[in-house]
Design goal:
The structure is a homodimer. Chain A is of the alpha+beta class. In chain A, helix 4 packs across helix 5. The two termini of chain A are 24 Å apart. The radius of gyration of chain A is 18 Å and the shape is globular. In chain A, the strands form 3 sheets. Chain A has a 4-stranded antiparallel sheet with strand order 2-6-4-5. Chain A contains 9 helices and 10 strands. The interface between A and B is large, with 49 and 49 residues. The structure holds a DNA duplex.
Amino acid sequence: MSTRRNPYGALVAKLERLTTLDDADRAAIQALPLRVSIYPAGYFLVRESDTTEDCRILLSGYVCRHKLTGDGSRQIVSFHIPGDLLDLQHLLLRCADHNIQTITEAAVAWAPAVTIKALADARPRIAEAMWRDTLIEASIFRERVLNVGRRDAKSRVAHMLCEFAVRCEIAGLGTMTSFDLPMTQEHIADATGLTPVHVNRTLQMLGAEGIIERERRRITIADWQRLRDAGGFDPAYLHPAT
Amino acid sequence: MSTRRNPYGALVAKLERLTTLDDADRAAIQALPLRVSIYPAGYFLVRESDTTEDCRILLSGYVCRHKLTGDGSRQIVSFHIPGDLLDLQHLLLRCADHNIQTITEAAVAWAPAVTIKALADARPRIAEAMWRDTLIEASIFRERVLNVGRRDAKSRVAHMLCEFAVRCEIAGLGTMTSFDLPMTQEHIADATGLTPVHVNRTLQMLGAEGIIERERRRITIADWQRLRDAGGFDPAYLHPAT
DNA sequence: CGATAGATTGATACTGCTCAATATGGGTGG
DNA sequence: CCACCCATATTGAGCAGTATCAATCTATCG
């Protein structure tokens, strides 16, 4: 897909899912000095307490944001898929409050945050799209608090699978019923507030009930309705329509 | 304090903690058609799936945002103190994804969301301040995911107390070492992902260790250093400085 | 002065964690 | 092309932290 190769196309496509752009907006985006870098799996794009200098869009691969407690346990607060904007907070906040790390090899387009800030200042619709994106992200965080705070293990895992599937579909990354899960069971554990051992058992349970099928890292959702019910999943919080 | 009585003063004060306003910005705020309403404790200002029509600033009292699971358990995702903007997401999202409910009697200034949106469109610095506020709120949600996902009961409660104390101080609401906790132990439980019974025992433990002192709903932090350590609290995620 | 919401206490149950061992399979160097 | 190696996945057994359930106590308020 050209979107994934061409950083400008990826950024335009992302913003057009959030608002309507005009020709001047598109021209301003084309004029950005975007550069593309490839990073290996496990690479830290941003570390907590870094000074925030760049702004990134993910072109291919998968990335997560996470925070660590004082005694070293990790909480993944979100996963990101191709097309996601990774650092909008860097436009207005000086210091990173979490880590951003690649899960797989990833291609990232980036520009200095001040450049993107200047774009937002010059093009109000682009600023509005970005602001909306940060609001949707905040909504996703709220849902994650609910997931981790008030659901049992089976629901948490089911909900996470639902969210990943729907976000991939919204982003135009293939079918919702069968997809590759790029993350390890340890990633899933750190995202759901469980241990890897218990995630393993929970996935087996979902498999044994015929809700999902697993084969390596590929997941097939055998019964979307029951997965949704198991996770208490309602996609409204993703605000799919503007 | 006049800030708490005068809705315009409260809004100007809030935005000036986020950015620098000029006279035209302040004049535009003064021209808003703000109205003030008083609501009793337990009142729903917004319900999930409501169409989002108004935008509010809290003048006095305390409010929380929360979501419910399918089987009815509640997760509080944030508490709000006087001076907080409650509905910025309503400027750009059509449908509420969570409930907003008063904890105590509360005075709220409000205007139609479209009016506030027009203000943001007309005054870029105000839009920027609001955007920054939503980014800081997102950071608070991320920290809450960590708190609920990866800390034990004692740490969760300690962290919550730290956050509340520091936010009150940033907002200029009195001293950090002694303050009224407006919420019940059930509120604390729903915010930390625990049960009220266990919150009670945890508070007693913090008291027995001499870290806090309790008397009714008033909390005195006897040993800030140890409370901070117990909660693994680092205020950087609140982004106190611009 | 009762009514009621909230706080406190005790006893017991259970979900998910810990620790430790084993299996799997994809990648790599010889 | 094969054997080894490492990360990851899987399994089992026992334990711990919180939940649950059910009283009782205590303020506050009409």
